[in-house]
Amino acid sequence: MKRKKWLASLGITSILAASILTGCSGSEETSKDEGSKDGSKKVEVSLAGWGGNPTEEKLLKQTLSDFEAKHPNIDVKLEIITEQYMDVMKTRLIGGKGPDVFYLDAFEAPGLIETGVIEPLDEYVKKDFDVEDFEKPLLESFQVDGKTYGFPKDYSTLALFYNKKMLQDAGVEVPKTWDEFREAAKKLTKDKVYGYGVAPELARMFWLAQSKGGDVVKDGKANFATKEVEEAIKPIIDMHNVDKSAVEPKEVGVTWGGEIFGQQKAAMVIEGNWAIPYLKDTFPDVDYGTAEIPAVGDKKSTMAYTVAYVMNAASEKKEAAWELLSYLTGKEGMETWTSKGYALPTRKSVAEKLGYDKDELRGPLVAGAPYATVWAEGSNLPIIVNNFNNQFMSAFLGKTPLDKALKEAQKQANSEIESK
């Protein structure tokens, strides 16, 4: 029943489109042979994902080349989907033309897993795969009812990025608590520079919203119109409207936190690993440091964003698909993929081997992985996010009281969920 509901939600247009899209899958191959051990026969396994920067694409191709060298009976057909990745994937999976292995973001995982199109992987796992090596919160985001549907290939948490010179000039220590952070932002706000460049959206504030004991999502429905959630996120509103120490990047003519920080229009931002290579390439003269996100009370919190490799349940080449998936998420493949620091390895042993746990900039990001809240909270999260963000922005800009905005957003979100 759930699968039928999901198919219907994509609409007739998507179903018709499935018949003309040219995705790769096991069902399209003329041979179902998994390949002989002596390499005399080959099987082609299709792999789909979205694009990255040139260095990431080179790393992926190198990893796949290494895999093929070690598995001469398997060829990998890589497809990069540059636009509307999930829409394309869902349409192809409906039409039976999905790839054998593909990327799946934790945010999208619950909804796709419940349709039955993702293969459970537990029966394929052997002891030498070392499941315990994965950071637990990241792995759990792809587990449902005791089954594992994907193994995370990389991730990023959030950390505090701070401008060393600005803090030094203002006589401000790196804040370790949220109260210290707010006071530091006040002192750092001067001469058209803001203390905090904030991203006022749930994807970046989920950890903060739940820091006072509230639940943003409960029993699959929006639950953020509570005193606990309101109290937790109200400081963001007050920093913008009362202290005047926080600003959204767009308010100063830039697009995101890395840019406002790089242009030195904000002394502090809370960003992920992706900001490190960006700052190195775009603003190499900015002297900055990173730290774990300031604790709310005595509790450390952060977000984690992760992507897994998953297997198409309809694949006709499951054994070969597992060989590929397990190599890509195994220690050797993951080390190659994450070797340049564009992505962080989800395996603790790989992070240690590459030195990221001790790295001056990436260390705080790695330190947050064991206690991170993963950006994945059930199949209704997309609906909840859209409604929260719309109303929260109204409160952030001072147009609507926060309590009223949260109540309106929750009401609308749950109405949409009930009508699914």
Automatic annotation (TrEMBL):
Domain of life from the UniProt record: Bacteria
Gene Ontology MF: a single term: maltose binding
SUPFAM superfamilies: Periplasmic binding protein-like II (SSF53850)
InterPro entries according to UniProt: SBP
Record's GO cellular component terms: ATP-binding cassette (ABC) transporter complex, substrate-binding subunit-containing
Alphabetically ordered keywords of this record: Signal, Transport
GO biological process, one term: maltose transport
Signal peptide location: 1-23
Similarity comment: Belongs to the bacterial solute-binding protein 1 family.
Record protein name field: ABC transporter substrate-binding protein
Organism the protein comes from: Peribacillus deserti
